[in-house]
Amino acid sequence: MNRFVIISGCSGGGKSTLLAELSRRGHATVEEPGRRIVAEERLRGGSALPWIDMAGFARRAVTLSLRDRRQAIRNAGDGWVFFDRGLIDAALAWENATAEPVLATLAEQHPYHRTVFLTPPWPDIYAADKDRQHGFAEAVAEFDRLADIYPRLGYRTLLLPKSSVGERADFVMAHLPAFPP
C-alpha cells in the first residue's frame, strides 16, 4: 500500500484549501503542479499556459509531478503525503490535449495509494481567477474525465463531502489507515 494520496477532482472544488488544512495538521503535502507552472510562466512571460498551449502546459505538469514524487520519496518521512492533483491528472491532461498515449504507462510506473479523494463540482465555492480562466462547465467536464479514469486505472474514488474544510480533512483521515504502510 502506497502512502502517496491524491486529492483530485473539480477545479475550484477546495483541493488547495483541504491540503492547507492537512498540512496544518502535520501531514506532508505537495502543491498543485498547474498553479506553480502558471506562476512561473507568468513570471517569465512564457506560453505554457492552459489557455494558450494546453499540450505544453500538460507536458510541464507531468515533468513537475515526476519531480514532486522523487522529492517526496526523499524528503517526506514515513507519514502520509497528500498531493494536490499529481501525475495522473497531468498525464490525463496531456493525453486529452495531444492524443499521445502516456497515461497508462505513467500510472503503472508511478502508483499512488489506491484511494483517491475527489472534490465534486460545487458551484457555491467555484471562482475563476487570473490563473483559473476556464468556466464552471469546463471544470465539470474535467471532473467527469477524472472521475472516469481513476476507477479504470484501479483506484477507489471517494467524493469529498460539500462541508467545512475541517470536516473534509476528518473525512480523508477516517478513510485511511491510522498509520501509512
TrEMBL record:
By its UniProt entry, which InterPro entries does this protein fall under?
NadR/Ttd14_AAA_dom, P-loop_NTPase
User: Mind telling me which residue stretches traverse the membrane in this protein?
Assistant: none
Q: What high-level taxonomic lineage is stated for the organism?
A: Bacteria, Pseudomonadati, Pseudomonadota, Alphaproteobacteria, Hyphomicrobiales
Protein name, per record: AAA family ATPase
Q: Could you name the domain of life of the organism this protein comes from?
A: Bacteria
Q: Which residue ranges does the record assign to the NadR/Ttd14 AAA domain?
A: 5-168
Q: Name one Pfam family in it.
A: AAA_28
